[in-house]
Amino acid sequence: PLILVAEDDDSNFKLIKAIIGKKCDIEWAKNGQEMVELFQQHQQRAKAMLMDIKMPVMNGLEATKIIRESNTEIPIIMQTAYAFTADRENAMAAGASEVLVKPITLSALRTCLSKFLPRLQW
Predict the structure, then answer these.
(1) Nearest in space to 52 (alpha carbons), one of 19, 81, 20, 95
(2) Are the CB atoms for 14 and 39 separated by under 8 Å?
(3) What's the sign of the alpha-carbon dihedral 63, 65, 66, 72?
(4) pLDDT, tens digit, for every residue of 65-90?
């Protein structure tokens, strides 16, 4: 399955790629605007999205709101370094399907993706 990943930090993207790259195709956006464009290009094939909240140009909350205008079904898993209740609530209000707190762990990411993509065997 194709997973779209919005992450502005190279090392965080490399970690995500190491965790899911053998089981999934990945397309990488470095900001929210690029993610909206990637989604428009690949919306027929994309099965889920990993969306960092804090990014340059356009943040993950704004990108999620735009994507949700045209697609309410695709799982959008938001990632944040902030574990405050308000951050989770803002992400869910923007249209997130789930929120993971960084640093992302192998088990947390795989468990979360398995919930939305049950056919994916780790």
Answers:
(1) 81
(2) no
(3) positive
(4) 999 999 999 999 999 988 788 989 99
